[in-house]
Specification:
This protein is of the alpha/beta class. It contains nine helices and seven strands. Strand 2, helix 2 and strand 3 form a beta-alpha-beta unit.
Amino acid sequence: MKNYPQKSQLKHQPAETAEMDEKPVVCSAFGTYAGVNLRDKVAIITGGDSGIGQSVALLYAGYGIRSVIVHYNEPDDAAITLEQIKAAGAEGIAIQGDIRDRSFCRQVVEETINTFGRIDILVNNAGVQYPQNDLSLIKEEQLIQTFAVNVFGMFYLTQAALKYMKKGGCIINTSSVTAFRGSGHLVDYAATKAAIVGFTRSLALQLAEKKIRVNAVAPGPVLTPLIPASFDPEHVAVFGEDTLLGRKGQPYEIAPSYLFLVLEENSYMTGQVLHPNGGDSMA
């Protein structure tokens, strides 16, 4: 994209699952909720190739939801996710591209409509983070990159998707525990996640008359490819130990929040944030 630095000095993100020493658990061993059938619905999931997005797609597939997996440059993870979706008896497609680009976001929506004919659920989940302990060392490139992926891409895709979303539609945005308790080494990232909370609550007000619900999920420390791509091995080894449960979460433990928010039985919820965070007492 001509408006962003082409030769990045930032550490590559997202990363692929195959590069991880410890692999995240994306499928639950507990089965599915009896009697729930969402087979007609279609979801767009950004960052759906791995981590939380992948786990959401797989959980959705168990209920018949067809998913469009949007990823940046992780085709291997996306292919594995599609295989797992199909093994669960659902349909899915993967679209590779950069959500910082408004035209790509429009392309995602148009391809979804051309393939499945509808959009019922939008999960704005893609994100990046670049740890920096000194605010003065956060360079313009990092600041633009973090906001462009985490916030601007969410705006672009939501704007495009709303053209087709109807009564009963559901938008779910991935925020973070850092939006509520802050983070000394992820100041710009935490700022984007707080912006997502404001976006969620404001858009819920705007779309209430259209009966389209907008909510967010604010996970605590969860093992995804983003973690070893962001931190050194020493940090990864103790990641999540400061929660009340004393451990990091797994993607499959976060995904049920995204299912809860699309169920008709829970349709009396909009403008809210769910907090699967290991009992972080500051959130």
